[in-house]
Amino acid sequence: MDNLGTIILSEIIGTALLILLGGGVVANVLLTRTKGFAGGTLMITIGWGLAVFAGVTVAYNSGAQLNPAVTLGLVTSGATEFAFGLPVTFFSVMVYIVSQMVGGILGAVFVWLAYKQHFDAEPDAGNKLAVFSTGPAIRSYRWNMVTEIIGTFVLVFVIIAFAGDRQGVNGGLAALGALPVALLVIAIGASLGGPTGYAINPARDLGPRIAHAFLPIKGKGSSDWAYSWVPVAGPLIGGSLAGWSSIYLLPILT
């Protein structure tokens, strides 16, 4: 397989595994009659962190970006190339983002297959949607956006800081290492996850939301498209701001 194909496959598989395990822990906690039912927010937060650990590990060849906000953050930080020396261009950015979105959709489909009987038994349509996508505790689009921007800024800024430079070949989640980035995601979830459920990744939210819309889920209800733009726009803005800020702040801080 050529280098471009390796990058595409790596991002698809890594993001799919991220969503399978992350969405899976939400399903285990929320859906009726599962072994992990009512496991609590901390179980979900730790589960998402370990899901990131798994996704980063298998997607190391592509830089394990797994997140359009990370990709844009690298671009605005001044990165000139991605994995395998792939130049940063509109085409290469779209390769990463489309691959991440495909992986997000596939991972969500596998969550549904793994928990098919429990989706059928769950009476609450809101719990079914929560397996696939985020939703705010208090709906205020402006403040929900602020939360997502801040959370994603922290994610991307720390990733770039750990990378030691702003080059995509050494950047992405892979530069941070699987365990540190897992701990970073747990920290963000535990501290900033309360208002919105901390999407901090458009592929994590929009991809599974699309899957929720087309999958034949019994009694699934609305996919809440009215809110869907917040966990896309917020992380893209936050990631881009983090990349741009790293140019000026990281030389001072380090």
CATH topology, anyone?
Glycerol uptake facilitator protein
Mean pLDDT: 93
Give the CATH superfamily: Glycerol uptake facilitator protein
Termini separation comes to 39 Å
Multimeric status of the protein: single chain
- Based on the coordinates given, report the CATH architecture: Up-down Bundle
Tell how many strands the DSSP assignment holds: 0
Strand content: under 5%
CATH class descriptor: Mainly Alpha
In total, the number of domains comes to 1
- Fraction in helix: 55-70%
Q: What is the SS-derived class? A: mainly alpha
> Biggest β-sheet: count, sense, barrel?
none
What is the N-to-C order of secondary-structure elements (H for helix, E for strand)? HHHHHHHHHHH
How would you explain this protein's 3D organization?
With 254 residues, this protein is mainly α. The protein has a single domain (3-253), classed as Glycerol uptake facilitator protein (Up-down Bundle). Helices cover 69% and strands 0% of the residues. It has 11 helices and no strands. The protein has helices at 3-30, 41-58, 68-76, 90-114, 116-121, 125-132, 141-163, 172-176, 178-192, 202-214, 230-253. The longest helix is centred in the first third of the chain and has 28 residues, at 3-30.
